[in-house]
């Protein structure tokens, strides 16, 4: 945790809030551009395959996991392109962020499969 | 952001037009209706009967819903062609001019009146064997349809109550006498009550060429919530349509008895219910059978009115089962009335 916080501090010093926010925004826009058609395809298929909802939900969950991976990869790429001679361990920070967001996604998926899906559908 | 744009722009600019085309495929609606397999809704999630003496129900009653999209997209149209379970039909009848929102409103209206019919049938049957059951009926007249030529179309709400109209010979409250109290070519004041309980008045023209207003009114019965015993609570849900009537009445009936009629079975089915307990035909038989099969139900009730009819729900269901290799003996149970279903469940307990 200490290591993470000190690396985050250095990231802020080196890129400032503006640079970090710009990288996050860029990564979000381009990963959304890539994944929106995938979600629309899966969403449309799901409406016709509701009797296979669990299977389709699994596919959609996997694409969300992949989306997070692409998002954090693009955040790293944007930061590297912004400052090629940076000294912060961006790879380490992105790995921590990826694991944290994937864990949140996993909890959301478990709640969906055990609570929401049986009640609504 | 700029760094990524500089890096990806050469590729993104070529993908722009295919991307727009893709969005067109996903969002542009076409006048075709799709019916696809859906899922089961346990009736206890739709209606709760507050009966302290209700038996412990070991099984369950579920209605079967299908996915019905009135105006599908091009992409859904393409995908539908790859599935043997999905039916695609050109939109016909009144649905052609209704918006998707209006079709949904009618479906919810159907569900509401279907639950009321289910309560009436179940309480009526239970009353014969349970003295604690009591109910009274309120008659209502609801707006069930609007033709395209209805004047002031937007002002009349679907599923609103017809209250009265100012006819040629005075106030008309009985909707069946509207015809004899109006003259073609004249405009009349109609009073309705919306679903929030507010009264509103709309002027409607009786068209000279068609001799009609373009309004479909239906007489329906609702149980009086003040006097009904045991009381009940309708739970809001996303499912619409009248096809759950039979299963809803079975679930409600089971709550009013002193013994469990489910015998631990997962019971599903389909069929509308009329106030006299007769079961009516439904659409989407193929998709409902597939849904029930995938959800591993033990018993599936389906309307079987007359083998001599050119079309019958049960006969179609049998054909679907044979086509898909589903064993339907003792699984697909044909019923003509509510009593048929109750009798079948009683024989399962013997």
Structure summarized in a few sentences:
The complex is a heterodimer of chains A (121) and B (350). Chain A is mainly alpha-helical.
Structural overview:
The complex is a heterodimer of chains A (121) and B (350). With 121 residues, chain A is mostly helical. Chain A has one domain (2-120). Chain A contains three helices and no strands. In chain A, α1 (2-48) crosses α2 and α2 runs antiparallel to α3. The model of chain A has no long low-confidence stretch (mean pLDDT 91). Chain B starts with a helix and ends with a helix. In chain B, β6 and β7 (170-172) form a beta hairpin. In chain B, α5 (285-294) crosses α6 (313-324). Chain B is α+β, with helices and mostly antiparallel strands and 350 residues long. In chain B, the strands form five sheets. Chain B has a six-stranded mixed beta sheet with strand order 4-1-3-12-15-16, sandwiched between helices. Chain B has seven helices and 16 strands. The chains are: A mainly alpha (121), B alpha+beta (350).
Return the structural class of chain A: mainly alpha
DSSP strand tally of chain A: 0
End-to-end gap of chain B = 73 Å
Give the helix proportion of chain A (percent range): over 70%
Please give the radius of gyration of chain A in angstroms.
18 Å
Count of strand segments of chain B? 16
- Integer-rounded radius of gyration of chain B: 24 Å
Low-confidence stretches of chain A: none
The H-and-E topology of chain B, N to C, reads as HEEEHEHEEEEEEEHEEEHEHEH
**Which term fits the overall shape of chain B?**
globular
Our estimate of the beta-strand percent of chain A is: under 5%
Q: Average pLDDT across residues of chain B?
A: 91
| Assembly form of the protein | heterodimer
Overall domain count of chain B: 2
Q: Which properties best describe this structure?
A:
heterodimer, A: 121 residues, mainly alpha, 3 helices, 89% helix, elongated, B: 350 residues, alpha+beta, Pdz3 Domain, 2 domains, 6-stranded mixed β-sheet, 4-stranded antiparallel β-sheet, globular
